[in-house]
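Exercise 7. Predict the joint structure of the components listed below.
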Amino acid sequence: MGEELFKFTVVKEDPHTWARAGILHTPHGDIPTPVFAPVGTQATVKTLTPRELEELGVTLILANTYHLFLRPGPEVIAELGGLHRFMAWPKPIMTDSGGFQIFSLEPLRRFTEEGVLFRSHLDGSQHLLTPERAIEIQEMLGADLITCLDECAPPLDREYVKEATDRTHRWAERCLKAHKRKDQALFGIIQGGIFPDLRRESARFISSLGFDGIAIGGLSVGEPKEKTLEMLEVVVPLLPRDKPRHLLGVGAPPDFFESISRGIDIFDCVLPTRMGRTGALFTRKGRINIRNARYARDSRPIEEGCTCYTCQNFSRAYLRHLFKAEEILGPRLATIHNVHFMVNLLREIRQSILDGTFSSLREEFLTAYPLEEPLKMAEED
Amino acid sequence: MGEELFKFTVVKEDPHTWARAGILHTPHGDIPTPVFAPVGTQATVKTLTPRELEELGVTLILANTYHLFLRPGPEVIAELGGLHRFMAWPKPIMTDSGGFQIFSLEPLRRFTEEGVLFRSHLDGSQHLLTPERAIEIQEMLGADLITCLDECAPPLDREYVKEATDRTHRWAERCLKAHKRKDQALFGIIQGGIFPDLRRESARFISSLGFDGIAIGGLSVGEPKEKTLEMLEVVVPLLPRDKPRHLLGVGAPPDFFESISRGIDIFDCVLPTRMGRTGALFTRKGRINIRNARYARDSRPIEEGCTCYTCQNFSRAYLRHLFKAEEILGPRLATIHNVHFMVNLLREIRQSILDGTFSSLREEFLTAYPLEEPLKMAEED
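Solution:
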């Protein structure tokens, strides 16, 4: 299905870890991997224009099917030429299936074999999302990479996880059957909570279906960080080498190193955008809160040597002023810096894999970057 | 005072009206006139970066002394290298005196001969703004064009207007005496409400003091539009030909034509930015409200043929979606379009004066553009 249009080339494998540098070819351009995709929930990466995203070196964004289904609706977007044209973003787009958002709607949703029945958080209207409908909607939206409907159960409840994972497998088969567009790559999703046997079973089953890519779901949703990493170690060796691997909804800067060294190629996360809007700014030494009084007269950029538009032009003092004065330019400039930080970090990691210096970059980065609390992030922004 | 640094050249005068095309030379670059200055109340033109302002062809912005005095404070801005560097805007800046904002603070303010005593709208702290202090603050901010402290009385109360105008004159002399920096042009302000004799007296007095530029205050603050225009007709012929004339806080697109044909060179107004943030977008046929349901599937740009970034890339349907979804990109794209509309209109007007076609452009524009309610706008955004 669309395999010729979505060739994934592994360019270099790190000899000491599972890390690899690759290129995912799509009809809207090449995506060098590992890659970080900013989240554009409502067909806009919050505060940024497509031009800015391009200048930041973004090569992939993720939009949320649940939100676009409710507003403006897939028919409107299809009528206006699809998501790329609607939001004027000419490069690759991925859509999720909507399952994760709807799972979070409790008690406004109910999962059955048929699909998931839910009420809109906007107007309370009732909808049934089936695997077939999830694919139909994503075909109308027209992203390059699309996703099977899955059920992301809370990771610790084995019985529920087993049931949800089995259902996710049956839905994966239905999604595959429903998917018609040749210019979209369909990703299967692996579930299985924090149970190695369930994760192995899911990895083997999803891998057997011949998807264009593999997503790993249900991780970094509250379980201990060691469990997340253990699951990656269990799953990744069972995956086809020639398909891209997406770890859904991750993550913070240290997570990139840990996950890439365990074989992940694609990340999406609201962290840089959502944090940016609150004034939390990433640096190589951890996050700073620009609203802090200590920055009131600080003429330095957020981070010395950073090449983003924000750091090239504005002081911490000015940024703090914008946040204190509640000016929109504050969240804008913070988002530019944070997205640049993430995209640039992934670019550096990729280069280090090509150069054979991944392990030393990883050590250097993790030494300077403080341990952070695990961050629980919804996959929407 | 700074005359060599601020030469104003009249390039062409319209033979049929008082309209003229000129160039105001400043230490931060030339300002072709007539010109529209977007308002950057808190050292940011709301939603826009300096880079965007440059791309929009903006050559002058106005910042509000009252707001910057309260936050972050003139000392902070001076310590960080002045307003240009603080906000990373390399082109000309004008500051008002703060008088207009403070006048609007009633009952939190009291005017006396010494100055105006007021309480901050942010924290209730009490301050005395004298003519000398208004100049001192503006010297710390470091704008290219600065303004005398004045009192803008309600335009209809003759006795109050007379008193306020006389005081404004005495304050003008004190401001002139207090002003030391040679790299700033000081504008005197004419008051006089809607009373021709008071306006004439004020025009003559202010003109006699040798300011670098003349601002006309206290108009478009609620009086009938005919009165505004009548006051311009009374005042302008009494002003020195070789000084730029600024009509404070104006205006809507038709106002430009009416005021320019009566001899005005400089405008500032919050209209394009404030309107833009609510989804009101300017076109040659008047304003449209992009939130209207009729635009839900409208694939056209805001205005056919418009060369702004917004119209070159996005449909009305997408803009409506952004506003309905309360995405920051909505106000951003709307502001870009509206500022482009104003700047571009002024550029066209200037060209028409040079080409000798001002009167026909004026007729053409005013025929297509519907009459609008008079807009009462504060001089801050």
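Discussion. The mean pLDDT of chain B is 95.
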